[in-house]
Amino acid sequence: MEVVIKLLICHSFLLLLLPALAAAETLQTYIVQLHPHEGGSASAVSTAGSRLDWHASFLERSVSPEQEKHPSSRILYSYHTVFDGFAAQITDGEAASLRALPGVASVRADRRLELHTTYSYRFLGLNFCPTGAWARSGYGRGTIVGILDTGLWPESPSFDDRGMPPAPVRWTGVCQGGDHFNASNCNRKLIGARFYSKGHRANYPTNPSEAASLLEYVSPRDAHGHGTHTASTAAGAAVPGASVLGAGAGEARGVAPGAHMAAYKVCWFNGCYSSDILAGMDDAVRDGVDVLSLSLGGFPIPLFEDSIAIGSFRATVRGVSVVCAAGNNGPARSSVANEAPWVLTVGAATLDRRFPAYVRLGNGGVLYGESMYPGKTGGLKKGGNKDDLELVYAAGGTRESEYCLKGSLDKAAVAGKMVVCNRGITGRADKGEAVKEAGGAAMILANTEINRQEDSVDVHVLPATLVGYKEAVELKKYITSTRRPSARLVFAGTRIGRARAPAVALFSARGPSLTNPSVLKPDVIAPGVNIIAAWPGNIGPSGLDVDARRSNFSVLSGTSMAAPHVAGIAALVRSSHPSWSPAMVRSAIMTSADITDRQGKAIMDGEGGRAGVFAMGAGHVSPARAVDPGLVYDIQPGDYVTHLCTLGYTHMEIFKITHTGVNCTAELQKNRGFSLNYPSIAVAFKSGGAKSSSAVLRRTVTNVGTPNSTYTAQMAAPPGVKIAVAPTTLSFVEFGDQRSFRVTVEAASPPAGKDSAEGYLVWKQSGGQGKHVVRSPIAVTWVAE
Ligand SMILES: *[C@@H]1O[C@H](CO)[C@@H](O)[C@H](O)[C@H]1NC(C)=O
Ligand SMILES: *[C@@H]1O[C@H](CO)[C@@H](O)[C@H](O)[C@H]1NC(C)=O
Ligand SMILES: *[C@@H]1O[C@H](CO)[C@@H](O)[C@H](O)[C@H]1NC(C)=O
Ligand SMILES: *[C@@H]1O[C@H](CO)[C@@H](O)[C@H](O)[C@H]1NC(C)=O
């Protein structure tokens, strides 16, 4: 919540100031996309200086002549690797004249994106459980994972380089110095670090003293914790003997502990700007990263306006696997962001780890709750009622006080008591601070109806627990039916293996993709609830300020935490198969995913019931199988262009994504019946009209398992939908052999009351060494005509 609140404060501050200044002459950041060779041959713009001149020449032709500054001083960034063009500070009028210039493909206002974490940036006095237990030592060796985030805290033991080989010779990245950061902060683990603040600063000009109060390091150093957390999740070193205070011990370790990492700081206290993100991607791809991890984004927008989609297209062409968080706007339908077909889109799932902290009511009743409060653990039965605290709810008589917003609580009413606070969508850790400030002794965070049973835990500044909606209803019933309600909290430490997991997190964004329902998104789910990973040494429970209770680890939840797990797995797969394309790496991760939980039952959804394909995509990642998938579905960059043609995108829209021209009429004539060789199968039919619809999809698989292997098809079709596969047997002689097949999906009008259906196709290896199972989910959606 820290970030969001700061943002709101800044907004209202600006709103007060701006009306006076807000003439048409206000400078804004725009991202200008160019046709690559217009106005200069490729060789003429091959050096940074000539490129800047070339970019400035566009501004010279469009900016108002009375501006005293040279146009090039308005350029924030010149892009040339994943994007052709520049970011500049211009007025609306100048943007309009730029748009009209020949050679200009598009002029888009900068866009603010957010980190995909669920509101809490608070530290945990505890530490790590082995979320990366599958990661075998040495795996990921030789690969480089780039993290676009809030930078990192280089002193964290997770970034120690003991046992790491030197950076690969192809690496051309740098360790950019700045505020509290210099070249000596990089090592063989952290081989590069850069920061991008121009887009951010153009939007939020702060004077130096303000900047200091925000503790924004103008350098790759992380002042928030998010980037430290995600980087260590992907490729953090093993930290042996990291013990959980009061509850067991564990080893902290990223998913690919043998991989190198490079930090690209593109996010600041007020979010992440597209212009900074593009600059980070531009450098990262040129520097030589193999995998890019992005735990940030916004709401879904058309691909040709989405800087992450555009930047990641060329990254993919250059062989970089781009892994993105799906976003936390679930369980709303079609909330999935970062859904470009060349990106690996990751939703969040729970772990089988619980932090029980029960509420024992004065009447003997017990409510299950969860907490990371590092309190003394105890039994439920011990002790009488004499240590109970009086319970109080809505102490202040206002709606704000029901939610324990700052300043809403009546001090006399809460002093020394256990305060019940509705959770809703406001900052959880902030409620704890509000209760403590008002003199409360403990807190029960009570889920409201929209939170259901979702259980992202935090570390609070006072003893606290979080209860689900069902428990919250019981709790309030008890309070209203009792003259002097009381309760105590019983902390039960860390429990592993009890709960049914993984399950899809309630907040994890859902498909079908708003912009392109013909590709199933998200692709997979990975751990993203109550994830413990590295944390800056200076950030205490109140967020950015220095606090006595320092820790090297913290707990966070969000698809932000899920994406770096998958980035780490991508590093493992690439380390085992260095020649594989990003599409092959993604295919391996998708077709080997689990659809059952640790108990062997169907993966459940935090929303209730079994998880569907729009919640979990191909399923929950399984790294051990991903490195040996048997068959893979490969995609050439040109196939993505043809795919964009099948979506009806115009020549210009496709150009904005790919930076290359295409004649879709000719392209589709050449590729009749084209379908993208995606490892999942999604069919979008038009609803309305009684006649049945059918679609034929072609797929090609490459044998990467064993020579002389045979696979047979098994499939499940949803009721009312016919699915046929031909041929139903695929035989491969050599390693690398390719075989094609057709999937025919046929359906009458959608099943009553539904607009989607799902099934699956599995290629199962038969015979002696037959162990590979290559699974693709099938999703059918009906969209209004
Ligand atoms: C980097 O910073 C550290 C700590 O401030 C300092 O001791 C060291 O000399 C600096 N190194 C370089 C290369 O500037
Ligand atoms: C955190 O890590 C630093 C550097 O390795 C170490 O000196 C410090 O003792 C650690 N702090 C805690 C609380 O474990
Ligand atoms: C695109 O290709 C079609 C078919 O080959 C051709 O008729 C048409 O002229 C081409 N359009 C352009 C703009 O080149
Ligand atoms: C595959 O089968 C062929 C024909 O039966 C045989 O010659 C070849 O040695 C086999 N290859 C392997 C690796 O087993």
Automatic annotation (TrEMBL):
Gene3D superfamilies tied to this protein: 2.60.40.2310, 3.50.30.30, Peptidase S8 propeptide/proteinase inhibitor I9, Peptidase S8/S53 domain
Domain PA as annotated: residue spans: 390-474
InterPro entries named in the record: PA_domain (IPR003137), Peptidase_S8/S53_dom (IPR000209), Peptidase_S8/S53_dom_sf (IPR036852), Peptidase_S8_Ser-AS (IPR023828), Peptidase_S8_subtilisin-rel (IPR015500), Peptidases_S8_3 (IPR034197), S8pro/Inhibitor_I9 (IPR010259), S8pro/Inhibitor_I9_sf (IPR037045)
Inhibitor I9 domain ranges (all copies): 29-116
Record: active site: 149 (charge relay system), 226 (charge relay system), 560 (charge relay system)
Signal peptide: 1-24
Residues covered by the Peptidase S8/S53 domain: 140-600
Keywords linked to the UniProt accession: Hydrolase, Protease, Serine protease, Signal
Pfam families named among the record's database cross-references: fn3_6, Inhibitor_I9, PA, Peptidase_S8
Boundaries of every Subtilisin-like protease fibronectin type-III domain copy: 676-780
GO molecular function: serine-type endopeptidase activity
One example of a Gene Ontology biological process annotation: proteolysis
Family membership: Belongs to the peptidase S8 family.
Name assigned to this protein: Subtilisin-like protease SBT1.2
Taxonomic source organism: Digitaria exilis
